[in-house]
Specification:
about 375 residues, alpha+beta, 6-stranded mixed sheet, 5-stranded antiparallel sheet, elongated
């Protein structure tokens, strides 16, 4: 997996007020006010039996960057549309700042949405596009200019204020769309796959812009994406959706290092999944492969996830509880690392290693700590 934070622009490429590093600690959101709450929310479309969203319960806190992550058809966009008011739940309740808004139309909610296609008015200048929501809200003219100036400055687009949308790049259009969404100072900003139409380099640049912008303005962001790299790079918390339900909610580190289900383990990054039987309290077995786990095995069957980067080879594998002889079946070179396709006790295993020179057909020792053998729910 190529991490989205590689090749990021330097902080100096951003506006001065947005130069905080992405690597700094996430917000301390414990005890923060809940801005959005979904209570047993379901959505079933007419002429369909299977619900698009099947009983979602989630609370999103003030100032949080919250991502809803899932593949196509998982229910993530439908969930976002219900928060925005573009769709109404079949069952359940949606609360904004503690008030029931389940049946309230979009224009009556203190919420703005940024879409993938920008939705800019082509005949209006950048400034006019950003000013439009304030004009519709009948904000006094004397207040409009400074607020537009502030919004454009936050997305580093002040010098483009007299250009038309067709004179802008995709990344610049996305910045203008963000400025227009933020100028009304909503309590909540919803972003529906906002970077999907951009090329890789622009997406990487906009990741930095979005995260630093969110930190500076302090508005709650709810971000929908199918890209697990984007979600891990930007979020305070991530909800992983599959078939209309949330499989896990947690920080990016929690989701990645301690996936709750086989789906989460395989969807977030790359992993090795083994559906094993229980040999003892801390040993799972599949065929001739005996895997030591740190958590206690409480059922006769279990699925174990082992991340490829947790696996060491050669002398580095010596200290670990899990240690095996392996045959290298394939080597894929990624520059900064190599991906090894291995065969261990008749079972396939993928490892990602650095600074090791191995060849196809070679016999090597591989190993990983018991803590890296994570027990998850469900089957591969």
């Amino acid at each position: 997996m190529t991490h989205p934070m590689q090749n990021m622009p330097a902080a100096g490429d951003l506006p001065a007020e947005s130069s905080e590093s992405l690597g700094s600690a996430a917000h301390n959101l414990e005890g923060s006010q809940v801005v959005v709450q979904l209570a047993s929310v379901r959505k079933t479309y007419p002429s369909t039996e299977k619900p698009a969203v099947a009983g979602v319960d989630v609370s999103i806190r003030k100032g949080e960057f919250f991502s809803i992550l899932g593949s196509s058809g998982s229910g993530k966009t439908t969930t976002l549309k219900m928060i925005a008011g573009f769709e109404h739940p079949t069952d359940g309740m949606i609360l904004l700042d503690g008030k029931d808004v389940t049946g309230v139309p979009p224009n009556k909610r203190d919420v703005n949405t940024v879409f993938q296609n920008y939705a800019l008015f082509p005949h209006m200048t950048v400034r006019a596009n950003v000013a439009y929501p304030l004009q519709m809200a009948r904000v006094p003219k004397a207040e409009i200019k400074p607020r537009v100036d502030e919004a454009l400055s936050k997305v580093a687009m002040a010098e483009y204020d007299n250009r038309l949308p067709h004179q802008l790049s995709g990344g610049q259009k996305q910045r203008v769309a963000l400025a227009r969404a933020l100028v009304g100072r909503p309590k909540l900003l919803l972003l529906d796959e906002p970077l999907g139409a951009l090329d890789l380099k622009l997406r990487e640049t906009m990741l930095v812009v979005l995260k630093n912008l969110q930190r500076n303005v302090g508005i709650t962001f709810v971000y929908v994406t199918h890209d697990q790299g984007e979600a891990l790079a930007m979020s305070d918390r991530v909800a992983v959706m599959n078939n209309g339900v949330i499989e896990q909610i947690g920080s990016p580190k929690e989701i990645y290092q301690n996936p709750a289900t086989a789906f989460v383990a395989s969807f977030i990054g790359k992993t090795n999944l083994f559906h094993c039987g229980r040999e003892s309290a801390h040993i799972a077995r599949i065929g001739n492969l005996r895997i030591v786990v740190s958590a206690e095995l409480t059922s006769e069957k279990a699925t174990v996830s082992v991340r490829p980067e947790s696996i060491e080879v050669g002398g580095a594998a010596q200290p670990f509880e899990n240690q095996f002889s392996a045959v290298v079946e394939e080597v894929i070179y990624f520059g900064h690392e190599q991906e090894l396709s291995l065969l261990v006790e008749g079972e396939p295993l993928v490892a990602r290693v650095r600074g090791v020179d191995v060849q196809r057909g070679q016999n090597i020792t591989v190993g990983w700590p018991a803590e890296a053998s994570v027990i998850v729910e469900g089957k591969p």
